[in-house]
Design brief:
Rossmann fold
Length: about 425
């Protein structure tokens, strides 16, 4: 059966590299569609858990993996020498930033080298990792064609940006529309046929570069608007105006306005990182990206602003930061998930400790920290109780999980610095609550 028939008729075996917040739900979506699937990851701990039917992505439910053990269509491995087995290989690896905010494409490069070693005729390769335009063509394509095969004839290559949003209940991998752009026309058509097996709406675009740029635009749009409300927060706070009430008021307009909300800094794998992929690539064509870079500066300054507000709150209470006991509520970057990637809470803890504070954290979704690219806090979540709250000089609300009892926090904490407007509906005295 030729590649067109394989993908058109849903007979293709699908491999997914990188079984994290993007790759694992994608693997399940293709399994749900009736296709045989293979998962690849460099972390043997993940592979062991998956082979036992266990999921490490708690927000997706305990039954994410276990059903796939039935029927013989599910396989996971750390052995990248088996990459020649799937008919389609989808790459969902990290694309972080380096120390100087430059793109770190080492995961894409290393994965492409691994695919190239086993690349066979008829295989379709799709990159989903967020990156700058031309990555698929300039980084992946040469590695594959060095095997002596031609794209569009011997193998096929496309880009389809991930659009996962951990914790969202109204959309999932199947219902979120999918963009697909090929390096050539046939590659795009095959990728389109593949994704249509697992995703309700798949939208073809003319090239891989269009799909790459569209993903960046989506996230830059959010980053710029978040920077806008963060800057508004700074100004309005000094004027004694509640920015949250202002946003609520502006949201009553039925057109021309979309609500974005301020916070302690940007988190997640997309919004804090993706804009800098475009700013870096823009230098190659000699054009500045002043607007995007300014938004990045505003957003990256928010943790410092929050620490200043904590310092001011403690000072007003007659307490120095040095030696103060501070509890950070929420380690995840967003509510109701265990995702701590790029979470500003880590930077807040680090900055407060650098000033001499004794810092603990509580997060019911994150019982303990683990080693990350930038941080290794080696901390565990403390219990939350009225007595525990009363023992801290300051409680810093960094993430507004739904499971928190905000009234209990308001009643028993001596001092609260709120970055998420979590205290908006509590009753009783508010003199000990400061926004940030």
């Amino acid at each position: 059966m030729n590649p067109q028939e394989l993908f058109d008729h849903g007979k293709a075996r699908v491999g997914v590299i990188g079984l994290g917040y993007v790759g694992l739900p994608l693997l399940r979506a293709f399994w749900n569609a009736g296709l045989p699937v293979m998962g690849f990851d460099i972390d043997p701990r993940k592979i062991e858990l998956l082979q036992q039917g266990k999921s490490y992505l708690k927000h997706l439910g305990e039954d994410l993996v276990s059903p796939m053990l039935e029927g013989g269509r599910f396989d996971v491995t750390c052995d990248f020498e088996r990459l020649g087995e799937p008919d389609a290989v989808i790459v969902c690896v990290p694309t972080p930033l380096g120390k100087h905010l430059e793109p770190d494409l080492s995961y894409v490069e290393n994965t492409s080298d691994a695919i190239a070693r086993t690349l066979r005729k008829g295989q379709l390769i799709v990159l989903e990792s967020t990156t700058y335009p031309r990555t698929t063509r300039e980084i992946m394509l040469p590695r594959f064609e060095a095997k002596g095969m031609k794209c569009g004839e011997d193998f096929y290559l496309a880009y389809s940006p991930e659009r996962e949003d951990p914790g969202r209940k109204d959309h999932n991998t199947r219902t979120i529309p999918k963009l697909v752009g090929g390096i050539d026309k046939l590659s795009g058509e095959l990728a389109l046929a593949l994704y249509r097996r697992a995703v309700e709406k798949v939208i073809p675009v003319s090239t891989a570069e269009v799909a790459e740029a569209a993903k960046l635009l989506e996230n830059i749009y959010r980053a710029v608007n978040i920077a806008l409300v963060n800057e508004m927060k700074l100004v309005l706070t000094e004027m004694g105006i509640d920015v949250w009430e202002v946003i609520e008021a502006a949201s009553t307009k039925p057109f021309g306005f979309q609500a974005f909300y301020p916070g302690p800094g940007l988190g997640g794998h997309c919004i804090p990182i993706d804009p800098f992929y475009l700013t870096w690539k823009a230098r190659e064509v000699g054009l500045p990206t002043k607007f995007i870079e300014l938004a990045g500066q505003v957003n990256h300054a928010m943790p410092d602003y929050v620490v200043q507000r904590v310092t001011l709150a403690l000072n007003n209470a007659g307490k120095a930061v040095k030696g103060a006991k501070v509890l950070v509520m929420g380690l995840a970057y967003k509510p109701n998930v265990d995702d701590v990637r790029e979470s500003p809470s880590f930077e807040l803890i680090e900055k407060l400790e650098a000033l001499g504070a004794e810092v603990d954290y509580n997060d019911p979704h994150v019982p303990a920290t683990h080693r990350m690219r930038r941080y290794d806090l080696q901390m565990t979540s403390v219990d939350l109780s009225p007595k525990m709250l009363a023992g801290y000089d300051c409680v810093l609300i960094a993430t507004n999980h739904k499971v928190y009892d905000w009234q209990m926090v308001a009643d028993h904490a001596r001092l609260i610095v709120d970055t998420r407007n979590a205290m908006s509906h509590v009753t009783g005295p508010r003199h000990h609550i400061m926004s940030a």
